[in-house]
Amino acid sequence: MRLQPPTTTVTEAGAVLVAPGQARQRSWGKTLIRGLISVALILWLLSQVHLHEVLQSLHRVRPLFLGFGLCLQFVGSFLTTRRWQGLLHAQGIGLPMRYLYGSWMVGCFFKQFLPATIGSDAIRVYDTWRRGVSRSVALATIMVDRLVGTLALMSFAVGMLAFASRVSSRIPGLSLWIAGIVAILVGSIWFVFVSPTLLQSPGQWLLGWLPGRVRRLLERLTDALAVYRGQYRALLQALGWSFLLQMNVILFYFVVARALDLPVPFQDFLLIVPIASVILMLPVSINGIGLREGVFVFLLAPFGVGVPDAIAYAWTAFGLFLCYGLLGGLVYAIRK
Asked: Looking at the 3D structure of the chain, how many domains does it have?
């Protein structure tokens, strides 16, 4: 079954949210702006070095570590899928691991090669919906999945703030930023698993100020999230899978550093990776291109990593993501 672009954007109640023509124009406009930002960032970084210096750094890459890094991508997909499957099971939905794993791989393909059009989360929502799950429930599950995963990742940053001083000293107020992010994540998870009826009591008056379509969408989403209330076992299991997953992510970035023989200790990646991940979530460039390079140039500088090596590091990591995305494209091509 092929994924087709929708001709209308509607809620489950049938209300049109955005006209198709307007949605396409906005999408193209955002893509153009992000593309220009990516090009500007890349040109600015390359203006500080010679391209052949970056290529020389890439020639030092050790293939054995690259193979190990690619294998870690498969491990990460397995852990992500198990967490997703557990959250669906808490909603009373049983989908096979093979189907969910394939959906995640297809999502990785679209995330890498069509970043301005559709992402991995949209694919996962679509795939669960076509197996009979309502859109609101599918979306709520992905939201919880992302919240728990990000909280686990930021937990590593909290634990390393006092020990990775070379990184933390470069960002003024880093402790406050991380504390704020963690507070938002904890509050959101509390809202979902402890008191998802917040919008039905003191926050009900806020809904009255929202447009009818947005209000109905929030109400349906809140109802879907309410299923997780009191599901503490599901929360603990999701956190467990998340900690394993984020450790796998951190190990991946460390392995890529070893492939280029960069002198960055493993423990410092426990802070570097959460910071970089949060920054790369910002929708300011195409798939993080340009932003990714700039982030690693900045974060790896305290360890004596020059601009050419940092750019080569960012390109190597991105190249492994692209390779895995191509495998997801094969899955998309052969599945029904």
From this structure: 1
